[in-house]
Design a protein that fits this description.
mainly beta, four-stranded mixed sheet, globular
Length: 171
């Protein structure tokens, strides 16, 4: 005796059975891809931040720009990298932690004389910097007062600075 799923006649090919069985899974995956953010995110760093120490705010509302405001003398931020796929080219490289054309701006609170930030970057690939890291101090009115601050990066998997990577950090 042959048992067939309800609604499938013996004359239909197995392909119809396979397609019908996969349809619910395809719908769930399609709905999930619409509801979840894709690999191309708006922020500068391709990572999720976790403020471990200090008074820090991170504004990621402008595409390609992370503005990290430090409200004290020092801070520690842990960054967990996520993969956005390998870089294009003949020999794919790890996805960049800071892609070309993106900027990470570290700044003080208005009137604050200086700051120091340790960024610990965690992931299976090296942290690749192809964009710009800049540190500035701000005057009492909140206007840029010039370069300032100390910004350091640590990554157990290594750090690579690409041909377009730049650091405008005075200390």
């Amino acid at each position: 005796m042959i048992v067939r799923p309800f609604g499938i006649r013996a004359s239909r090919p197995r392909k119809a059975l396979l397609m019908r069985g996969c349809a619910p899974v395809a719908l769930v995956l399609a709905a999930a891809s619409i509801a979840m953010p894709s690999g191309a995110r708006a922020q500068a760093f391709n990572a999720t931040p976790d403020i471990v120490q200090g008074n820090v705010t991170i504004d990621r509302s402008v595409p390609g720009l992370d503005t990290i405001t430090v409200g004290g003398n020092d801070a520690v931020i842990d960054w967990t990298m996520f993969s956005v796929g390998p870089s294009p080219g003949p020999s794919p490289a790890p996805s960049p932690f800071l892609p070309d054309g993106h900027t990470a701006l570290y700044r003080s609170l208005p009137g604050q004389p200086g700051f120091a930030v340790l960024n610990r970057v965690f992931g299976s690939d090296p942290a690749v910097f192809d964009g710009l890291v800049r540190a500035i101090l701000r005057d009492g009115q909140g206007n840029p007062a010039g370069p300032g601050g100390f910004v350091a990066f640590y990554a157990p998997s290594g750090i690579l600075v690409g041909p377009t990577g730049r650091f405008e950090v005075p200390q």
